[in-house]
Amino acid sequence: MAENRVDPTVAGLFLVGFITLVFGLIGILLYGKVDGAGALAGTVSGEGGSLAVIVGVVFIVFTVSAIRCGNAFAAALFGFVAVALFGATVGLNAGSMYLFVVFAIVFILFALVAFLIGAPKLLAILLFFVALLYLFVGLWVNAIADDGMNNVFGVLFGLFGILAAAVALYMAFALSTQKLPVF
């Protein structure tokens, strides 16, 4: 019996677009709010059900699907996105900047690998934006006590979240419709 296996890349890009848009909008909306850490942690990793953990579980499913399709890069990337989302809940609840910085470095490495293996340049740009999102969330978590820097880092992670969402959603629509160019 032959099995049809669907590559989860497009669905993964839609989901990346969704979760980075959520992070981005939260970053922009928290501008000037001192209690922003509680708001972000409550939205992304709150007691009522963690958005990041739920999306992370979906990315585990996408990872398995990518492995079954033989797409090693997507499998590695989706697996790491799941780990990074689980780590975001831990980092936000613990107030740890270092976990976010490590995730940012790994996303930069994924961007370099994507560029080197000849993946679309938009994918490398997307991964770079996600790296900056994680970096500025980490710096924001570390600068909570300083209102001025809290505002700057919050707006920066919001900006890079929205940029990452725009690139991810463009790529998802381009790949799914095959009518838009993917650079």
Description:
The chain is built from seven helices and no strands. The N and C termini lie far apart (37 Å). The longest helix has 31 residues, at 147-177. The protein is globular. It is mainly alpha-helical and 183 residues long. It has one domain (9-172). The chain has helices at 9-29, 36-45, 51-69, 72-94, 97-116, 121-142, 147-177. The mean pLDDT is 84.
Keywords:
single chain, mainly alpha
Shape: globular
Order of helices and strands: HHHHHHH
Number of domains: 1
Task: Note the beta-strand portion.
Answer: under 5%
- Tally the helices: what do you get? 7
Arithmetic mean of pLDDT: 84
Radius of gyration (Å)? 16 Å
Specify the biggest β-sheet.
Answer: none
State the helicity in percent bands: over 70%
**Unreliably modeled segments:** none
C-alpha end-to-end distance? 37 Å
Based on secondary structure, the structural category is: mainly alpha
Counted beta strands: 0
Helices, strands, pairings?
Elements: H1 9-29, H2 36-45, H3 51-69, H4 72-94, H5 97-116, H6 121-142, H7 147-177
Helix pairs in contact: 1-3, 1-7, 2-4, 3-4, 4-5, 5-6, 6-7
Summary, kept brief:
The chain has helices at residues 9-29, 36-45, 51-69, 72-94, 97-116, 121-142, 147-177. The chain is mainly α and 183 residues long.
